[in-house]
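Suppose you are handed only these lines of text.
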Amino acid sequence: MPGGWFPLPVTVMGLFACAVFAVLAVAGEIGVLPALAAAALIVLVQALAMRALRRDLDRFGRALEEMAANPDRIEPALPSTSPAIAGQWAALQRLNRFWRQRVARAESELASSNSVLAALPDPIILINERREVMRVNTAARELLGENLLRRDLAAALRNPAVLKATDSVLKTGIGQQIEFDLSLQVDRHLRAGIVPLPGHVEDGYAALLILNDLTSLKRAEQMRADFVANASHELRTPLSTLIGFIETLQGPAADDSEAQKRFLAIMQQQAARMARLVDDLLSLSRIELNEHLPPTGLVDATSILRSVVQTLELRAELRGMRIELQLDDNLPPVLGDEDELSQLFQNLIDNAIKYAKRDTAITVAAVRSNKVRPGVAVSVRDCGEGIPRLHLPRLTERFYRIDTARSREMGGTGLGLAIVKHIVNRHRGVLEIDSELGQGSVFTAHLRIGVPRGVENDSVTTTAHRASAR
Ligand code: ADP
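From them, the structure of the protein bound to adenosine-5'-diphosphate can be written out as follows.
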């Protein structure tokens, strides 16, 4: 009970006053009765005052306990007390309000720092002097998984070079940068910036690890290098043939008109192959350049299909094939670029002619589809060998072929489906490849129909591969 000490001096003062009256009475200065009456009065007043004081202090104590039990609540009211106690209580309330405001401000600052940390796209890890993970942001959890807190950094980043660099930063307080590979579900190439922070113990530092995922950058670099190597290789082969024949024509076959005829025919073939390759490379780079800008024109897919089929009918006939058109009536116009859609359909039908069995039918259909919101699905179905499932995800990569010799023999460049994929992507559509071994394949491009401007909301474009190949 607060104030337990208080009655003592009051009692001492009362006793002192009584003693003074006793002395005065003994000395005959005042009468015994008045002295006794005065002493009794003093004791009575003292008792009343002490009772009131004790009651006020009890109330003060209870209010204080209530406030301590619920520091976040508005301070409890103190029932009427003496002005001195009320003054103390008011001061205490002001102090409590001041700290409550301080705490609220600190909490809101902490919450906004947490939001900033969570929103940062790069994974960030805070570790203490003992290399234990103290905080991570959302990006770090997405990259490295849950349950990282309070565990050694090695549980999250199992890479000796990073751990060694981190140990050195914790010891010396000198920041470091390091690039490293990490095997997660997929292999990643990361860069870590390790920044020292003041630690809680003497002679030790905490640290902040800021990770950059360089995987796609590395992959893009690798793809660019592969692409240049592939393209050069594709051009080099016909070029070497041409050079070889030119030398032969200038030398040993200079006077052999029969050989000249044969060689010139081969040279023409090789030159045509180079021209096709250069055309496809140019198409691909042109489409890629515009891929971020979806076409805004409205075109009639069925009339494009009719004209493409017309131009390819002759080639199909050479392999004893028929192209059957199945076009739904009254299809709405699609959002598209006429030349690109023409190239898309041409590549798909051309592949069906190249890779399906002789003397079979190719079915080209256009129907309404809801795959990419209301749209039109254009499919090319052939009766070929079908494509083994393992090839499906890679089929649209540049220069990816199942049988390179067959593709070359049929005049393929290995870029046809890459062009198809990029055109579909630019049209914000979806490409599906369905194939069954021994039955044939269906390539379907889902295209969007025109919608009024402003209603459109671009969705992420995906290229889906569905295989029923076994
Ligand atoms: P290419 O110029 O070689 O035809 P594409 O990019 O058009 O290049 O096609 C890549 C590969 O996909 C082809 O080499 C072929 O192996 C396979 N392919 C494409 N279309 C078909 C199809 N309709 N049937 C079977 N295989 C196909």
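What can we learn from it? Residues 32-69 form the longest helix (38 residues). The pocket of adenosine-5'-diphosphate is lined by residues 347, 351-352, 354-355, 382, 384, 387, 395, 400-403, 407, 412-418, 441 (CB under 6 Å).
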